[in-house]
Amino acid sequence: MRVVDGQQPSRPRPATSRAVPCLAAPSFAALPAEAVVLDPDGVVVLANEAWYRYGQENGAGARCGIGSNYLQVCVDAARSGEEQAGVVAAALSAVLDGHAPVAELDYPCHSPDAQRWFRLRATRLPGRDQVLVVHDEITDHVEQQTRLQHAATHDSLTGLAKPGHCWTSR
To answer: Distance between terminal CA atoms of the chain?
Structure first.
């Protein structure tokens, strides 16, 4: 046992529920994925730095910050023709309404500069009337899967479909 300044070091104490809030805010803020917490109506009550950065880089600005209704943003986007926004809105509604504890879906979210894909996970927070929504970018994974699928179904020299892997329209 090491003694410092004539005192024995105290034993580490196990984490208590009081310690969790001290860690929760900086941990949430530091998540690399875009994340928000929604109230029962879909209003953003907490957003991390990655969420704000993504919004600024993609023209969302304050439309998706604290106090904005993220569910309504998705509904409005669906009404204007963004098909995937409708799927996201339905998934969020299912979790917000308590019909599902978790929703997960992969969706494209392309920009003028890049083709991107994300995985949305919406999870009801235990003991709370709130939902955590996390968007992980999965572009590398999707592109890798596309390359593997192409390699499995096409000749590596000619690029032509291998026999038995030709698609026909019906």
So the answer is: 77
34 or 60: which leads in pLDDT: 34
Q: How far apart are CA 117 and CA 55, in angstroms?
A: 16
**Number of folded domains in the chain?**
1
Q: In 5-160, where does DSSP find H-type helix?
A: 19-30, 49-57, 70-79, 83-96, 139-153
Please report whether residue 120 resides in a domain. Answer: yes
Mean pLDDT (whole number) for 33-55: 92
Q: Which residue has the tokens 């970018």?
A: 137
Residue 163 counted as domain residue: no
CATH number of residue 124's parent domain: 3.30.450.20
**Residue 127 located in a structural domain:** yes
Asked whether the whole model's pTM tops 0.90, one would answer: no
For the chain, what is the radius of gyration of the CA atoms? 23
3-state helix, strand, coil in the chain (%, to 5): 40, 20, 40
Identify the three-state secondary structure at position 44: strand
Q: What is the pLDDT of residues 86-144, one digit of tens each?
A: 999 999 999 999 999 999 999 887 777 888 888 999 999 998 899 999 999 987 766 68
Domain, as residue range, for 44: 32-153
